[in-house]
Specification:
single chain, 2 domains, elongated, de novo design (two linked rop proteins), five-stranded antiparallel sheet, alpha+beta, binds zinc ion, OB fold (Dihydrolipoamide Acetyltransferase, E2P)
Length: about 260
């Protein structure tokens, strides 16, 4: 069976002398593995379309469980991603997240769209990298089913508190007043149960970072970065909270994230 699909190259692995195995993120089939025979040969028509971070239309031949790329034409090469090591390593981290939160035969339209939008923003230098990273992380957590309740303080009745604290483990927020009481109780709990210390994570939220977090989670993909967070300190709070939230709920670490962070 031969068919065509759009696909974003999330991973490429060299095999033998001339071949590659690709991991593609596609809209309707989700994350798929495709063999690109001869793609590393200089004469191959698959060459540039099968490079990491490339968005292309692939003609795929399916035989049994295996897929082979017959032909490909580039839609968007995202050249700007390879211009510097920070951009490239952030894009690599987003690819690793995308691989983690998608599966085969599961529609991945949302993940594909937010990955393409993020690649575009990184390549064009449209927003600070910690903002792009944070938005992607918190949306990835939401898509994976871990949406924090940001509407009201989890302890008192205050609706939409403007600032306070994000409780990562419980996926909720506390207003300023309740945050202080809750922190005291949590410290006592950590003292009594040191094994819990790693799982109890609180992130400080200012009115702007909390508003940014709400926006980043619930805005349509086409406007996912259209909010303003200017203060460096607040960008730091936002980025830290998004990262902690995703890693905690996916219960894993990412080598590409460790590399990205080693650059700063
Ligand atoms: Zn409260």
């Amino acid at each position: 069976m031969v068919y065509s699909t759009d696909g974003l190259v999330l991973r490429e692995v060299a095999v033998g002398e001339h071949d590659k195995i690709l991991t593609l993120l596609t809209p309707s089939e989700g994350r798929i593995t495709v063999s690109a025979k001869g793609a590393r040969s200089s004469r191959s028509k698959l060459g540039s379309a099968t490079k990491l971070f490339t968005y292309a239309n692939f003609e795929i031949y399916k035989k049994g469980e295996f897929r082979y790329a017959k032909d490909a034409s580039i839609t968007e090469p995202f050249f700007g991603l390879s211009d510097d090591i920070e951009r490239m390593s952030l894009a690599a981290y987003l690819c690793e997240i995308a691989c983690d939160i998608t599966g085969e035969s599961v529609s991945s339209v949302d993940v594909l769209r937010m990955t393409l939008n993020s690649f575009y923003a990184i390549a064009k230098g449209l927003y600070p990298l910690p903002i792009i990273k944070g938005v992607y992380e918190i949306r990835a957590a939401g898509i994976s089913g871990y949406i924090p309740d940001l509407e009201g303080c989890a302890v008192c009745s205050e609706k939409t508190p403007k600032s306070g604290m994000l409780d990562v483990m419980n996926g909720c927020i506390y207003c300023e007043k309740c945050a202080e009481k809750h922190l005291n109780a949590a410290q006592k709990e950590m003292y009594e149960h040191p094994d819990l210390a790693e799982r109890i994570i609180y992130c400080r939220m200012t009115p702007n970072t909390l508003a940014a977090l709400r926006y980043a989670l619930f805005s349509p993909p086409s406007r996912m970065f259209s909010f303003e967070l200017k203060e460096k300190e607040e960008i730091g709070y936002f980025s830290h909270a998004c990262e902690k939230y995703l890693l905690h709920h996916l219960e894993r670490d990412f080598n590409t994230l460790n590399f990205y962070k080693s650059l700063f």
